[in-house]
UniProtKB/TrEMBL annotation:
Region described as Disordered: 157-184
Keyword GTP-binding part of the UniProt annotation: no
UniProt keywords, alphabetically: Hydrolase, Nuclease, Signal
GO molecular function: hydrolase activity; nuclease activity
Taxonomic path: Bacteria, Bacillati, Actinomycetota, Actinomycetes, Kitasatosporales
Ranges of compositional bias, category Gly residues: 165-175
Signal peptide: 1-37
Protein name: Ribonuclease
Amino acid sequence: MLAIRLHRRRRTALALATATVLAGLTVPAVTTTTATATTTAATTAGYDDAYYDGAAGKSGEALKDALHTIISDQTELSYSAVWDALKVTDQDPGNSSNVILLYSGISRSKSLNGGDTGDWNREHVWAKSHGDFGTSTGPGTDIHHLRAEDVRVNSIRGNKDFDDGGSGFTDGGGSLTDSDSFEPRDAVKGDVARMIFYMAVRYEGTDGWPDLEVNGQVDNGSNPYMGRLAVLKAWHQEDPPDAFEQRRNDVIHDSYQHNRNPFIDHPEWVESIW
Ligand SMILES: [Ca+2]
Ligand SMILES: [Ca+2]
């Protein structure tokens, strides 16, 4: 169509310089391409915007309240069902027989789930002692923050808060730890932060569970808090959601809990709430 129009203009011999005509045609062509790319990106997200209708136009506490209502509508898993769910959500994209261990970055056979040295087990990224919610169906079985991890590395992380600094350790994959905190490897720093933000919004003191909140401390012990907020916000910025994390959110929504982590879908909401 454009080519035909150009051809006709030439035939009318209006003495327009060819360069001028091409420039005039190029501008709308580029604009169209950009618009198409934007539309494609928006429609490949793993959720319908209708999921977040109740949060539209909100910010701060109002946004947090709206998101709490939205994501609290979920199916809950038993702790034993978590094993099989993690084999799907944490599957190695390069080897469907394996899972990727969160802090270690190691790919390990799905069949090695258990409690022995060399096995992987169910790591609570929001340490279950922070609020003492255990492994009854509820926050302790919420796979948005449950991840496959090497038994020994899981023990090294223990119930420490998150902060920068410390020393590396065997099979740590670059993760660090010191006496009072844990720093995950760079590739999952943002993933960890977004899991913590999800937990703080999902659990607001209803359903008989404690109100989990993020704070600025690294000595939270058994209080229902997790730190350190400023560091988690920085990690969220440094390590934005990638394909692995987005697929994981989709699988949890589509196949297991039927709720989403809003901070993977809308990273900008972290700054709005905190
Ligand atoms: Ca990441
Ligand atoms: Ca909360």
